[in-house]
Design brief:
- The chain has 390 residues and is an alpha/beta fold.
- It has 2 domains: 336 residues, Thiamin diphosphate (ThDP)-binding fold, Pyr/PP domains (Rossmann fold, 3-Layer(aba) Sandwich), CATH 3.40.50.970; 32 residues.
- The chain has 13 helices and 7 strands.
- It has a 5-stranded parallel β-sheet, sandwiched between helices. It has a two-stranded antiparallel sheet with strand order 4-5.
- α7 links the parallel β2 and β3.
- The chain is globular.
- The protein starts with 52 loop residues before the first helix and ends in a 7-residue tail after the last helix.
- The N terminus is likely disordered.
């Protein structure tokens, strides 16, 4: 690993890749952290920067609104308005930090839980609800937002991201030195997906071709009901060394640290220095999805332990302690969140149901004979019900 500075962004010091002890409960001594759970600002020798009051207030707003999207969507599912919802409770800092570190020309390949990153990329959350309501297949334009459609197949998006990053190299938008031109790709996945073959294949291709991709793993401790200890004998970020590129573990509940680490990793990719593995060490305080019951496989003591590390609460304490936000600011954010909740509830219920025949319109650019036969057969099936009760 090179110790060469990356422009004006933090570098990757050699201490970040040393093997450490087996305890992972609090992330280990190698964890990059800039804001403690108590809201105290600390500094890191390799990753650090100054933040303006506006920046910190912006992070706080993003996290509060993202959490409201999550809680409203969960409630909508409970009331039968959504088929399912993938919760992100507790992971707001990881997603907002990663999302705000992007430049407009960077491209994101999400899983199915990156609601905060979608928010940062300007995707209307109502379009996320349409997907989980089952009325469309993801109606946002990936090219408009440089944010791909949600990927349900676990880990597949890492291969998509690596291939796209290799294409960027051939398009000449990597390592030119032009900050408005050079671009990078981010592949989001969870700790469970790290066990998938697709993810490891993506690592191999990214390393072999020095692709400008950042692998951003939100390690929320649970692959549905499988704990991280059963998936890896070493911290996940250390796996990167076996593939030949650097890895770093950041406090995923610390939005300042996540933002700073992702800025460095993205710049490294844009400069043509290849892939980086960023493990955001966080915790899924909610369920895997609304079909999951986490009380069946994890202890309530662990959940309570992580509630003390709440990513939003620590920023709120920091803002209040240093006089960077007053009561009016917090009241305005609460009012904005309430208005967003109303828009989501009303907008979701107002979504029109799709017509049954619409599913044939989004399969191929040019209709095949087989698809035409299926369309005709299904149309005849629907027509057989007409007048049945007259």
């Amino acid at each position: 690993m090179s110790n060469q500075p990356i422009g004006e962004t933090p570098g990757f010091g050699p201490d970040l890749v040393e093997v450490f002890g087996p305890s992972q409960r609090d992330g280990g001594p190698e964890l990059v952290q800039l804001l403690t759970p108590e809201g105290e600002r600390v500094h890191h020798p390799d990753f650090d920067r100054d933040f303006s009051a506006d920046e910190v207030r912006g992070f706080y707003r993003d996290m509060v609104l993202t959490r409201r999207i999550d809680t409203e969507s969960t409630a909508l599912q409970r009331h039968g308005e959504l088929g399912i919802w993938a919760q992100l409770l507790g992971q707001e800092a990881a997603q907002i930090g990663a999302g705000r570190a992007l430049r407009p020309q960077d491209y994101v390949f999400p899983t199915y839980r990156e609601h905060g990153v979608a928010w940062c990329r300007g995707v209307d959350p109502l379009k996320l609800l349409g997907l989980f309501r089952g009325v469309d297949h993801g109606s946002w334009d990936p090219a408009e937002h440089n944010f791909g459609l949600y990927t349900i197949v676990i880990g597949a998006q890492t291969l998509h991201a690596t291939g796209y990053a290799m294409g960027m190299q051939r398009d000449g938008v990597v390592g030119t030195g032009d900050p408005d031109r050079d671009a990078a790709v981010v592949a989001h996945f969870g700790d469970g997906a790290s066990s998938q073959g697709d993810v490891n294949e993506a690592f191999i291709f990214a390393a072999s071709y020095n692709a400008p991709v950042v692998f951003f793993c939100q390690n929320n401790q649970w692959a549905i009901s499988e704990p991280i200890e059963r998936q890896s004998r070493i911290p996940l970020y250390q796996r990167a060394l076996g593939f030949g590129f650097p890895g770093v573990r950041v406090d995923g509940n610390d939005v300042l640290a996540t933002y700073t680490v992702m800025q460095a990793a993205l710049q490294r990719a844009r400069d043509g220095q290849g892939p980086t593995f960023v493990e955001a060490y966080t915790y899924r305080m909610g369920a895997h999805t609304t079909t999951d019951d986490p009380t069946r496989y994890r202890l309530s003591d662990d959940v309570e332990h992580w509630k003390l590390k709440d990513p939003i609460a620590r920023v709120e304490v920091y803002l209040k302690r240093h006089g960077l936000a007053d009561a009016d600011f917090f009241a305005a954010i609460t009012a904005e969140a309430d208005a967003l909740g109303v828009r989501l509830r009303e907008g979701c219920k107002a979504m029109p149901d799709p017509q049954p025949m619409d599913m044939f319109e989004h399969v191929y650019a040019e209709e095949t004979d087989e698809l035409a036969a299926q369309r005709a057969g299904y149309a005849a099936y629907l027509a057989s019900f007409e007048g049945a009760h007259s």
